[in-house]
Amino acid sequence: MQLIDTHVHINFDAFQSDLEALCNRWREVGVVKLVHSCVEPSEYAGIKALADQFPELSFAVGLHPLDANKWTKEMSSQIALLACSDARVVAIGETGLDFFKAENQQLQKKVFAAQLAIAQQLNLPVIIHCRDAAARMRELLQEFWDNNGSVRGVMHCWGGTPEETQWFLDLGFYISFSGIVTFKNAKQVQASAVMVPSERLLIETDCPFLAPVPKRGKRNEPAYVRYVAEHIADLRDVSLETIAVQTTQNACKLFGLALSNDDKVVSIVK
């Protein structure tokens, strides 16, 4: 069985003491690819070094909405140049809107729109962070679509209601679920995980954050994406293998990932 963790942050200090052991554990459970997200462009060199160390890694480049105040007029061209500098860059992000206690909503929207333009220009998917901002996110994306054309991508670590989920499905996005979907009280997220079409479903850890049950409260890591897959399989009343195959195919399609001959998944028979 093969799994793809579509959102990790293993460059964070929490992992520096045991990276090799971390890698051994994700390989043991069948994680064959990881997409390493980026909080700000200054992380690029470190993430690239990790990809050199661990061939399973592809990565993104972008600026997180909580770091929007770091945006400069030069950063747009910087992100574009970095994205073009390595074939392992498969996305722009993570970017988006985070209105939880935010006082810079207008700046966030400006920075997000700029990164949507980069993704469209380079024909790369965008990794979208959206917290307490679903309605405004929908409006901004629709406005961008109407004026500039569509951009493909994923709503990462999704925590929205089924109604909100449908908004982004209608815009063509993939929906990625993290350990939140395993939490006892996450009923709306679980309902969303049931309704997402199989061809738009992705899984992730967002490690080191949000460890799934039964590891909740501990440091999260890529190997734990299996628990996310298992829980979604239970919710959708399908086998773990079905979820593994479908989400792996979806990740490969969205991010342009190529599996080795040893890693190839068998297509699900419709």
Task: Write structural notes for this entry.
- The chain has 270 residues and is of the alpha/beta class.
- Helix content is 40%, strand content 16%.
- The protein is built from nine helices and eight strands.
- Helix 3 runs parallel beside helix 4, helix 4 crosses helix 5 (134-148) and helix 8 (225-236) packs across helix 9 (240-255).
- The two termini are 19 Å apart.
- The model is unreliable at 266-270 (pLDDT under 50).
Quick summary:
By secondary structure, the chain is an alpha/beta fold.
Mean pLDDT: 95
What would you call the shape?
Answer: globular
- Number of distinct helices: 9
**β-strand number:** 8
Give unreliable regions as ranges: 266-270
Beta-strand residue fraction: 15-25%
Largest sheet: 8 strands, parallel
Assembly state (oligomeric) = single chain
Element string (H = helix, E = strand): EHEHEHEHEHEHEHEHH
Secondary structural class: alpha/beta
Helix content: 40-55%
Give me the Rg, rounded: 17 Å
